[in-house]
Amino acid sequence: MEAKTVMCSYLSRKMSKVRWQPDNDLPCSKFLTGSWGEPSERLPNIEEVQGNAVQLWKYVPNMDPIPLYTMEHSGDVTELKFLDTETFLVSSSHGSLQLGQIENDKDETFYNIKSLNSWSNIHSYKNGTHSSLTSFARSKNGVVTVGDDGKLVVIALDSPTPLCSIEDSFNSSLKCVSFIDHKSVITGNSLGNLKVWDVTSGKPHSVFNLPSTLKLVSINFIQQKPSQQHLLFVGSDDGSITVWDMRNTENPIILNTAHNESVSELQFHPENPNHFFTCSSLGELWHWDMKQDSSLQQWRGDTLNERLSVTALAEPLYLPLNSLDVVAESVITTCDNEATYIISKPLSML
Amino acid sequence: MDRGSSTRSKKVLTLLHPVTRTLVSESTNIFLSVQEINQLNSFELVQEILNSSKKYRCIIRECIQRLELSSQRNADYVSSLCDVFYTTELCWHLCEILYFEPVSGDVILPLLKRWIQFHFVNYESVAVKILKYQDSEEASTNVDTESLVPDYWSTVFGLLCQGNSRLACKLVELHSKANTTAFSRAIKFLKYIPEFDELDAQSVREFEHSWQNWRSKVNADVDAGTFSGDKNLETAMKILCGDSTVDKVIRKHCVSWYQYLIAKLLYTQPTIKSSQLEHYVADSMKLYKVSDKPELLSVVLKSLLQKDLHESIKGFISMNDSCWCATHLTNLLQVGQFIPVNIHSNERLDKKLIIGYGRALIQSEVFWEIGVLYLRSCKQEGFEVLKTVLPEIQLENDYVAKKVLQIANENNLFSVIQSVCTKRSEKYFELGRHVDALAWAIKGKNHDLASSLADIFLKKYVETQEMTLLEVVDHLGAKALFVDRLVFLTKFVQFCNKKTKKEFTEGLSMLIDLLVNNMVPNYFKLTYFMEISTLLTSSLTEANKTDLVQILHSIEDYSNEFEAVPHNEDDKISKQKYEELLRKINPLRKQVISKLALASLPA
User: Between B211 and which of A252, B22, B194, B389 could a Cys-Cys bridge form, CB atoms 3.0 to 4.6 Å apart?
Assistant: First the structure.
């Protein structure tokens, strides 16, 4: 196997989300980023797009990513997901959701992101102030979004207004949502509660709570294992990852080797679903091999900072890694030092 | 300039351009690794300081390059940024040579020569062009070089001023008269100019000897008029032997006093030590009329050459790069022990700068997490500042709040933890999101907030008899037990759960426990007794004698308390309330008494 390489580049924004653009011809060479924490007020003398943005980049191995297009985005980007090779959904801390499409000319020199549809202010509080749309999940029929306002909203992509909006009786901020099957979704909230909802009637109603023992701990993601869809991987603020088998929810498996701080995201390797990757707010990026139970290799921030060019091998940064994405040959992750790290041959030995 | 937008980021404005932002992010890596080299032995320390200095300069140069590439847009501003960082790098490089570079035999000029050659490439690039041109036009031999290339001699002089004799020699070799005796003598002198080789084991004395030898030969030829046939060639040779009659030519070919200084020293004092440089600085500056009102660049270079570090740092601070350079360079100088630590106060010169830089980064909004890393490196003093600046960060949403909270937790900044949690709690309270408000109040151990939120839930129950916290309580955890009112609320919710499951007997004993321990808030007591009453009505409830006596006592206490409050005869409202209380409580009293009577009957 060829050796793993790590490439670090600075993107001039803190990215809360990063996603490879799915490509029919492998390998993936373009990715989208969504930023957080950019002030809305403009600085003088700068012509470039300012504020939060969704950006499309081209990645050529051993070179800094080339920005192809920058689209302004109101609020922090809270989730970003491709629907197919061109269209994607992006959600905002201002409570809105947008359906975008990447366009380019024949020569692939000019790129553009067109907004196909957008739903603004679908999550808001009683007094009208917007609430963060924290996460969304997609099925064949539509999209379910959740927010800090404790609501579930059902959206059809071709309809300009949401189909319905339900308030969770738990009355706490909802932080993530995932489909279990075509009939039900599961939500995780800021106190560690996991709730299953029936969506068959189009109007979700809660069915039961999972016996989660988390106390005052926010759930960050619920990720379905692609090859065994009854397995749900749930990551939370205390760094723990719990695996729920939906056929028997009494005894969840808590993965032993946990992160010490909030685990931000988990992504499965698309071709090798026994491998998955996690990143944490302590700047750790871990590669898990499920055949060998716990963590096969643990990559700390320091080994990731290896730069091929000028500044080699910096010390650990201890800044959060917010997001990651995996394709066959590369893992990409983004850090609050405004850097992105692209690891080639992620499955090869260190 | 838009004044409104410049307030928040005025301090680090130069660092907020998309290109210069990478400078901030990237230098953080180097800065953090520099803080670790304190533990190294002295040899490694020197090596690491030099390496780090080079890395810093490397990213400045990358930054300048990227700025130049981006300069189609808003060219004036970008080029002003380029100037800022160009100046920074020029000064930093000199500082690196004078302090961090190991100099064998303290012969500093070879390094200074490289410094000039590195930063002033105009003569070199003209020379390279001439050489290329000659290569391609080889056919036209014997054409007069001078007339073909108008800059020919001035390029030769310029190269000599920079000590680039190798390239100067190549140019002279091109000359159409290169075959004449005068030119071949000159070429020989240029070729064999002694260079101090730091790697060779050559001693300073040996070098000086061979240089003097070489120089006297050039001198002799100049005096003998060997070159008098060609005025320009003669001038070049006079430069080589340090003849002061050609000072004007040197002056003309050096745009700045420091270039002039080095050009002069190259051919008069080739073994000068760095400590002796200061004697020559003033004269050069005078010649360029910069002594009276020197611009910042001159001030910094002068102080560096004079080895006046405090003055240099002052200069770096005044640079327009938001103290980026001053902070990182002073830190390197401090860690490398080039600046003595004040023995009395144990104060480090770099700390103030690091703290200032870190604080400015935090206030810039976009770099606040990086700013924290800088402040943290200053230990106690940094933490003090963190305590005041972290709470100022705008907590737009939970995502940001969690990030601030994690930093506060990692560094045991309890006041920040409390402030963040309280702000979130108050925000959710304001939005009517009481569960989230309660959760944040518990996280921040905010006693008052948690108590008043618990009151809200209980009072709501008084009104509606609905408990909204049924699911929530399981997730509040042990952390919630720091407030009495919350303990009561939690227990009461557990009771409600038991009631739903029709576990009445256990429910009743829970209620009695709370009564006995005096946990029930006054405004809740009536509702509480009604709950008891409902339980007692059910045939599923088993109450023993002691329980009943307890209840009866509590009822008496409660109505006595109510009676003890002085009632004004005219106060209809309180009178009404009292009557209502009696109307509600009396049936319970009777109920308990009759149960008690039943229980007292012999079996």
Answer: B194
Phi then psi for residue B101, to 5 deg, are -75, 135
A40 at interface of B, judged by CB pairs closer than 8 A: no
Residue B471 near residue A169 (C-beta atoms within 8 A): yes
- Determine contact: B460 vs chain A, CB below 8 A: no
Shortest alpha-carbon distance between residue B496 and chain A (Å): 16
Contacts of A273 (CB under 8 A, 6+ apart): A225, A226, A227
Last residue of a domain, one of B254, B272, B290: B272
Domain that holds residue B193: 115-272
**Residue B384's pLDDT band (boundaries 50, 70, 90)?**
very high
B27 and B132 together in one domain: no
Q: Is A10 part of the contact surface with chain B (CB cutoff 8 Å)?
A: yes
Sorted by where each starts, the structural domains of chain A and their CATH numbers stand as 131-258 (2.130.10.10)
Q: Residue B27: inside a domain, yes or no? A: yes
Interface test with A, best of B328, B399, B434 (most A CBs within 10 A): B399
Total domain count, chain B: 3
Rounded to the nearest 10 degrees, the angle between the axes of helix B181-191 and helix B231-240 is 20
Report the distance separating Cα B146 and Cα B326, nearest Å: 47
A102 burial (CB, 10 Å; 0-12 / 13-18 / 19+) is buried
Say yes or no: B92 and B123 in one domain.
no
- Under 8 Å CB pairs connecting chains A and B tally to 171
CB A83 within 8 Å of CB A100: no
Average pLDDT, chain B: 89
Q: How far is CA B24 from the centre of its chain?
A: 7
d(CA A97, CA A176): 15
**Would you call A168 an interface residue with chain B, using a CB distance cutoff of 8 Å?**
no
B173 domain residue, yes or no: yes
Least confident of A203-212, B59-68, B448-457: A203-212
Q: Is B59 close to A37, i.e. CB distance below 8 A? A: no
Distance CA A101, CA A69 (A): 12
Within 8 A of B398 by CB-CB distance, chain A residues are 132, 148, 173, 175, 190, 218
Q: What pTM value is reported for the model?
A: 0.90
B198, B225 Cβ separation under 8 angstroms? no
Q: What is the pLDDT of residue B412?
A: 94
Six token digits for residue A216: 């005052």
Residue B338, judged by CB atoms within 10 A of its CB (0-12, 13-18, 19+), counts as: middle
Contact B208, B230 (CB under 8 A): no
Nearest-CA distance from B295 to chain A in Å?
Answer: 25
What is the Cα–Cα distance from A255 to A259, expressed in whole angstroms?
Answer: 10
Same domain membership, residue B96 and residue B20: yes
Ordered mean pLDDT values, 10 residues apiece, chain A (350 residues): 75 97 78 95 87 95 92 97 95 97 91 95 93 94 93 93 90 94 93 93 87 92 91 92 88 74 92 84 81 39 25 50 90 93 72
Residue at a domain's end among B375, B398, B433: B375
